């Protein structure tokens, strides 16, 4: 299994710069385009860390818009800047997101799968 890992995009509302300086949305969009162009294509994108900057609904709406062009399945794990219930509402219905209960930030993998490969 080939996994692309993207971390800490700190997505902001449309037109708002991260810390008033960096266009984190444009950088994240470029990262998504890069993943889509990879050959071989990853089997999964693991998105972790601070997905948005302040945990606001408009940031999650922008995150969903930025993820829409991604041609690879995504598994998103929120970070400390993320607001769990706003995250759950924005991505309700996604198979990787529980409909209720805690959204954890810790994952344990006991062993690599049989199809694991190194490049």
What share of the residues lie within helices?
A: 25-40%
Sequence of secondary-structure elements: EHEHEH
Please state how the strands of the largest beta sheet are arranged side by side: 1-2-3
Low-confidence stretches: 106-119
Distance between the termini: 11 Å
Count the E strands.
3
Structural class: alpha/beta
**Averaged pLDDT, please?**
85
The CATH topology corresponds to Purple Acid Phosphatase, chain A, domain 2
Q: Quaternary arrangement of the chains shown?
A: single chain
Supply the CATH class. Alpha Beta
| Largest sheet data | 3 strands, parallel
Fraction in beta strands: 5-15%
Can you characterise this structure?
By secondary structure, the chain is of the alpha/beta class. The chain has a single domain (3-90), classed as GpdQ, catalytic alpha/beta sandwich domain (Purple Acid Phosphatase, chain A, domain 2, 4-Layer Sandwich). Helices cover 27% and strands 13% of the residues. It has a 3-stranded parallel beta sheet, with no helix packed on it. Strand 1 (3-7), helix 1 (24-37) and strand 2 form a beta-alpha-beta unit. The longest helix is centred in the N-terminal third of the chain and has 14 residues, at 24-37. It is globular and about 35 Å long. The chain starts with a strand and ends in a 29-residue tail after the last helix.
